[in-house]
């Protein structure tokens, strides 16, 4: 009876409590941007560069531009479209941009390494970020995948296998390789229960008032709200707190020259087989109107634009896409008619998208999304695990999918940096 009464209280709370009486939500991050941190980027970019980068990459649909007012050699960023509340004023470079020390090497920095041919990655720090937590958290993350009633596969396992195969190849080429995680433990110290108040606020404001929810019977409504509350607590834990903890690790301790986020893709309804396989690489950009509304989101977008990681990101993604397309023999994703994706070059494998990780991680970040897990051949290859040589799948002799993936990425990374870091040969 006590358990039943507690649920009745929660149901009444979710449906009836005024917003002013809601408990304060657990903060995932400080929602007051530290605008002074952008001062290091003052006069480091010309107005033409700023506007071009904004229009082509970060806000191609014009979502952010409505908050800006240009005035001579500066631009003011406002909180509102009426441009009444100014958040920050950025000064542009005149002719020669001021040099700022970054935590990563830009394209312009790489030739100074003067590396030998067999060590093109010497002096570089590369971070591997295997996606998802996995293990006991795989069901919570909804990353426990199976096709047509077959055995379940955890994407976190697949990503970690690729990362562990990739790391030694990069190390042999001279890189210092760093992992954001190398097991099935979360990076964050938080737990789902810590986000109960935040999840309660979400359910109270976004789910409980819906007409379809209010039309349910009392018991059905109670069950739905409780289940939604649990899922929201878990979502805040693994998708928000976990990624923010990884971002803090990347930004404060690892400080890489390039971060590779390792994932496998899927398409459509994962209960139905995908007819083919594709390759997708994601770099940062493509902000939609809903992703630049708050001061914090405006700050994060400006940081990524001004840190000038985009040229390195795009050039590295292009080299990696060429190597992976050749090695994996995968065509590009079908053209995406989605406002959250932006085309930033003539390379059909690369799209810009505003993801929480590539927004919060400092420096160049590339999301790797090859294959479709719900393609029957891919699924069979994943179930086969890692192995030497070749095995037959659907009449084809194929290598381990994990080695194929890792080798393609390694070749692309090495070729990219070799073009920019090798010492000029004698006599040239």
Keywords:
428 residues; alpha/beta; 3-stranded antiparallel sheet; 13 strands; 39% helix; globular; disordered N terminus
Provide a descriptive summary of the structure in words.
By secondary structure, this protein is of the alpha/beta class. It has twelve helices and 13 strands. It has helices spanning 2-16, 47-58, 138-141, 155-172, 196-206, 211-214, 218-254, 295-306, 310-328, 356-360, 376-384, 401-421, and strands at 68-71, 74-78, 86-91, 125-130, 144-145, 153-154, 176-179, 258-262, 279-284, 350-353, 365-370, 390-393, 396-399. A six-stranded mixed sheet has the order 7-4-8-11-9-10, covered by helices on one side. Strands 1-2-3 form a three-stranded antiparallel sheet, with no helix packed on it. A hairpin with a 7-residue loop joins β2 (74-78) and β3 (86-91). α1 crosses α5, α1 (2-16) packs across α7 (218-254) and α9 packs across α12. The termini are far apart.
Strand content: 5-15%
Q: Can you write the helix and strand succession as a string?
A: HHEEEEHEEHEHHHEEHHEHEHEEH
**What is the strand tally?**
13
Low-confidence stretches: 1-6, 16-30
Number of helices: 12
Radius of gyration, Cα only, in angstroms?
Answer: 24 Å
Sheet with the most strands?
6 strands, mixed
Give the overall pLDDT as a whole number: 91
In which order are the strands of the major sheet placed?
Answer: 7-4-8-11-9-10
Distance between the termini: 86 Å
Give the % helix.
Answer: 25-40%
From the spread of the alpha carbons, the general shape counts as globular
What structural class is derived from the secondary structure elements? alpha/beta
């Amino acid at each position: 009876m006590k358990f039943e009464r507690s649920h009745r209280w929660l149901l009444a709370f979710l449906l009836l409590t005024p917003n002013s009486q809601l408990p304060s939500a657990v903060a995932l991050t400080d929602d007051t941007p530290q605008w002074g941190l952008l001062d290091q980027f003052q006069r480091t970019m010309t107005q033409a560069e700023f506007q071009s980068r904004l229009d082509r990459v970060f806000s191609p649909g014009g979502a952010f531009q409505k908050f800006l007012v240009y005035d001579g050699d500066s631009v003011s960023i406002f909180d509102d479209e009426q441009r009444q509340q100014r958040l920050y004023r950025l000064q542009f470079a005149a002719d020669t941009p001021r040099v700022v020390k970054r935590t990563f090497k830009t394209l312009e920095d790489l030739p100074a390494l003067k590396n030998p041919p067999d060590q093109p990655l010497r002096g570089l720090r590369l971070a591997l970020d295997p996606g998802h937590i996995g293990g006991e958290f795989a069901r919570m993350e909804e990353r426990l995948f199976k096709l047509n009633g077959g055995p379940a596969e955890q994407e976190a396992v697949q990503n970690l296998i690729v990362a562990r195969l990739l790391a030694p190849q990069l190390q042999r080429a001279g890189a210092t390789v760093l992992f954001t995680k190398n097991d099935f433990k979360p990076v964050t110290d938080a737990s789902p229960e810590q986000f109960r108040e935040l999840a309660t606020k979400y359910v109270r404001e976004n789910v409980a008032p819906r007409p379809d929810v209010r039309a349910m019977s009392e018991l059905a409504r109670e069950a739905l709200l409780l289940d939604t509350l649990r899922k929201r607590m878990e979502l805040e834990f693994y998708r928000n707190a976990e990624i923010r903890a990884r971002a803090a690790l990347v930004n404060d301790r690892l400080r890489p020259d390039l971060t590779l986020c390792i994932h496998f893709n899927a398409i459509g309804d994962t209960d139905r087989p995908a007819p083919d396989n594709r390759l997708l690489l994601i770099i940062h950009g493509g902000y939609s109107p809903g992703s630049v509304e708050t001061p914090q989101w405006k700050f994060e977008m400006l940081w990524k634009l001004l840190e000038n990681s985009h040229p390195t990101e795009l050039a590295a993604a292009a080299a990696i896409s060429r190597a992976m397309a050749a090695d994996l023999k995968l065509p590009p994703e079908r053209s995406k008619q989605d406002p959250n994706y932006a085309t930033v070059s003539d390379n059909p494998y690369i799209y810009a998208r505003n993801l929480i990780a590539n927004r919060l991680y400092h420096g160049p970040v590339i999301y790797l999304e090859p294959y479709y897990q719900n393609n029957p051949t891919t699924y069979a290859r994943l179930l086969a695990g890692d192995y030497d040589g070749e095995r037959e799948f659907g009449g084809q002799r194929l290598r381990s999918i994990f080695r194929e993936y890792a080798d393609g990425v390694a070749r692309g990374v090495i070729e990219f940096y070799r073009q920019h870091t090798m010492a000029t040969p004698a006599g040239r």
